[in-house]
Amino acid sequence: MTVAERKLMAETWLAASKGKLKTIVHVGAVALRDAQELAAHAESLGADAIAAIPTFYFAPRTPVELATSLQSVAAAAPNTPFLYYHIPAMTRIEMDMSVFLTIAKAQIPTLSGVKYSGFDLSGASRCLLDHGLEFEVMWGRDDVMLGALALGMKSFIGSSYNFTAPIANKIIKAVEAGDFETARNEQKKLKKVMDLTERFGDLVSTFKALTAIAGVPVGPTRAPLRTINAKEMQKFRSTLQEQGCLEWLTGSD
Is 188 a catalytic residue? Predict the structure, then answer.
């Protein structure tokens, strides 16, 4: 999306969500100046928080470089809480987030936490143990949500929750009730949905398709990604139906 399109999306979301839910606007960009412009814009709209991935073509190589880079983004919205979006599968920036938080808190006054979308629960656990009383550690891997709950995490951000929210809520409620057998069964359902989804294409295209199946059409993807066509959509829906997944996605929590 262009900067102008991202601004329009933020404006639309914040207008629709005002007084109903808290909104975190993602402002990360390949160009640092674009990220700064988006951060300032989000603050002018009254966003509850901003989040950012780092610039990742010419990428920071150490926690110090990462903190310094992000400081300039956070400074463009000096009155808005800032979250770092750690997603090494996409950015290829992999480093110890606990060390990063230790360094960054001295440079970024508005730092409020990290969305941890790495694959390692161990690294996320270290963040929670070292910084859990000071910062929010949000888990971003939907398919192992139960593991994060077992570690004590309380906050979750995941794209699949657009359609797997009924399952995810059951996992949380089961853990709160100490019913880990139910929690494991529900986690298996969520994992099954995601595994089936991956069979039909990239996650952006298939997640958009599933969100539409759940009743909220969000439009096509853009090149280089490919939008699922009508025939593929029908096959996708029928497969989900045959596997019992549609019932899980529409069930009450």
Answer: no
